[in-house]
Write a structure and sequence with these properties.
alpha+beta, globular, 6 helices, 21% strand, 214 residues, eight-stranded mixed sheet, two-stranded antiparallel sheet
């Protein structure tokens, strides 16, 4: 558990404005993988009952391409908060309507050669102008894949991230949920104070009734 929460620290410090240095590792997302494998990677973010009926966006070198229209309001894709990351993600209907457009915009602008700093500035301006909206009600983001990787801020290391759930919490901070930064075994806020802030929860192991002490 301690290791899992040290990884949360990585999540807290990660954002798509992180600069990519020449000595950085190879990006985790492999565009050369067969199409079907990359589709399965996107769908791995959520349980099959959800991902199988979700809209799916495939990340190509030209940006995201919608390859399937879903029926349940969810959207599954591989997010990349930095160009080195690999973050299979499934937004619910609320996130699909609000936050997802910013993710699509990021990859579209990367293909045009824009810097991460400029893209972030444009996203921030989009929130201020009303072009982008924050979630208007509680909702869930599935990131239950075991194939997620994040760049450790300030280093050239990619680390695997544990399967987890996130909940929309626009502009929230750890103080809002009573979770001091140094506290382990507590929910945490990712991207604190930002319009697309989330509360992250790492599900613990399931304790079956037959294993419970009597």
């Amino acid at each position: 558990m301690r290791k899992l929460f040290s990884i949360i620290g990585v999540l807290l410090g990660t954002n798509f404005a992180a600069a990519v240095q020449p000595d950085m590792p190879k990006p985790a997302y492999d565009f050369a993988l067969p199409r079907e494998e990359r589709i399965k990677l996107a769908e791995s973010a959520a349980p099959a009952e959800i991902a199988g009926q979700a809209t799916v966006y495939l990340l190509e070198r030209t940006g995201y391409v919608k390859i399937r229209e879903g029926t349940n309001g969810f959207s599954c894709f591989v997010d990349r908060q930095t160009p080195l990351n690999q973050e299979p993600t499934c937004f619910d209907a609320e996130g699909s309507a609000t936050t997802l457009p910013t993710r699509l915009y990021v990859e579209e602008q990367r293909t045009k050669g824009k810097s991460e700093e400029r893209i972030k500035a444009e996203i921030d301006q989009g929130y201020r102008s009303g072009k982008y909206k924050t979630p208007s009600k509680p909702g869930i983001v599935y990131m239950m894949s075991d194939k997620g990787y994040l760049l450790v801020p300030g280093t050239n290391k990619l680390v695997a991230i544990p399967p987890h759930l996130m909940f929309y919490a626009p502009y929230a901070t750890d103080k809002d949920i009573g979770s001091p930064p140094a506290t382990r075994n507590m929910p945490r806020v990712i991207r604190p104070g930002q319009p697309d802030a989330y509360i992250i929860v790492i599900p613990g192991p399931v304790e079956h009734p037959e294993h419970q002490s009597k």
